[in-house]
């Protein structure tokens, strides 16, 4: 259940609870999901008895609820006006967005205060499955006084997949991803200093060997500026593997690869051999070595690390959620 949200009505304030629900549209009307349901916050016990009169400091908009269609009906609650005084600026400034989740035709859409969300390109914002829709709705629910789009990585990836601004197909995306293999971070080694050479060997080699064993390929490493020679058989193996990804998953995978600058680390994380923290640390290995030698600048180095973790984690989550699928079947009722 999502956290409580606020919605404005005229010059008054209305408390709305958890407007995240699923309605499935199928042949002949709504499917087993039925109309959306909403949870109503409870009225204080002392005012819930039959005939009890609410004091003026409480606002009751239950009667106005009837003006909404049955499927969109939002049950409103009573709330002390004093509770909202500190939130008026947020409410009348950007206001909180309550995320509504619907499903029809196999696609899910996100509604903000019962308004349809659209992409920057003007398309209706729809996602292919419920898991990803809930994740995006949660991302919107986390917004407070202002909309911080730079923190909404899942929404950004969905917009990219829907609008496809570069107008690429799957083959072109796979080719772009595989180009990073030729300049992979873990394949480029240094000759000096010896401490860094040893660090790269100890930290990167186990991941590289796992990758070669996992996909039965040869990658190798080199200290040459030209990098290692990647066999065509290795590229063909990875191309065949990436072909099994759908367009949305490839969008997320390419995003992760561009963040880590490494196909090896990205695939290791997607295959759950590495955690997000481990993958980010390995991608920053040389930088971490320099920090250990020269010292850490908290406002710069720490921010970069946490921001990279957030983007990488969002990309990995997007890949898994975009690959998720589920099927609901009705049971035949027998007399």
Short summary of the structure?
The chain has two domains: 5-146, ATP12-like; 170-323, ATP12 ATPase (ATP12-like fold, Orthogonal Bundle). 42% of the residues lie in helices and 9% in strands.
Report on the architecture of this protein.
With 335 residues, this protein is an alpha+beta fold. The protein folds into two domains: 5-146, ATP12-like (2-Layer Sandwich), CATH 3.30.2180; 170-323, Orthogonal Bundle (ATP12-like fold). The protein has helices spanning 88-92, 130-141, 153-163, 170-182, 194-215, 232-243, 247-260, 263-270, 276-283, 285-294, 298-323, and strands at 5-9, 12-16, 24-26, 29-30, 99-104, 107-112, 115-116, 126-127. The strands form two sheets. Strands 3, 4, 5, 6, 7 and 8 form a six-stranded mixed β-sheet that branches. Strands 1-2 form a two-stranded antiparallel ribbon. It is globular. The model is unreliable at 1-50 and 54-100 (pLDDT under 50). It is found in: Mitochondrion. This is ATP synthase mitochondrial F1 complex assembly factor 2. It comes from Gasterosteus aculeatus aculeatus (three-spined stickleback). InterPro entries: ATP12_ATP_synth-F1-assembly (IPR011419), ATP12_ATP_synth-F1-assembly_N (IPR042272), ATP12_ortho_dom_sf (IPR023335).
């Amino acid at each position: 259940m999502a956290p409580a949200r606020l919605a404005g009505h005229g010059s008054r304030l209305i408390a709305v609870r958890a407007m995240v629900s699923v309605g499935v549209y199928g042949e002949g009307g709504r499917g087993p999901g039925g109309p959306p349901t909403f949870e109503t916050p409870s009225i204080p016990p002392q005012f819930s008895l039959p005939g009890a009169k609410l004091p003026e400091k409480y606002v009751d908009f239950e009667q106005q609820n009837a003006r909404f269609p049955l499927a969109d009906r939002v049950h409103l609650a009573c709330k002390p006006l004093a509770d909202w005084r500190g939130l008026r600026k947020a409410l009348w400034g950007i206001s909180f967005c309550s995320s509504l989740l619907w499903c029809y035709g196999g696609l899910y859409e996100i509604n903000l205060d019962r308004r349809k969300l659209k992409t920057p390109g003007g398309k209706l914002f729809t996602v292919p499955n419920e898991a990803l829709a809930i994740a995006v709705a949660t991302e919107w629910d986390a917004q407070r006084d202002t909309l911080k789009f730079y923190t909404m990585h899942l929404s950004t990836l969905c917009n990219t997949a829907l609008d496809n601004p570069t107008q690429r197909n799957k083959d072109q995306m796979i080719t772009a991803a595989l180009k990073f293999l030729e300049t992979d971070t873990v394949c480029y080694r240094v000759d000096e200093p010896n401490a860094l050479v040893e660090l790269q060997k100890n930290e990167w080699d186990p991941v590289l060997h796992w990758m070669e064993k996992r996909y039965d390929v040869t990658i190798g490493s080199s200290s040459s500026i030209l990098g290692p020679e990647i066999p065509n058989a290795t590229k063909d193996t990875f191309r065949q593997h990436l072909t099994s990804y759908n367009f949305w998953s490839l969008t997320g995978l390419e995003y992760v690869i561009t963040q880590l600058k490494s196909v090896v680390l990205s695939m290791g994380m997607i295959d759950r051999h590495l955690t997000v923290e481990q993958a980010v640390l390995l991608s920053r290995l040389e930088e971490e070595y320099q920090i250990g030698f020269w010292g850490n600048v908290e406002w710069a180095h720490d921010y970069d690390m946490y921001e990279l973790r957030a983007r990488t984690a969002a990309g990995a989550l997007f890949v898994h959620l975009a690959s998720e699928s589920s099927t609901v079947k009705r049971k035949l009722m027998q007399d």
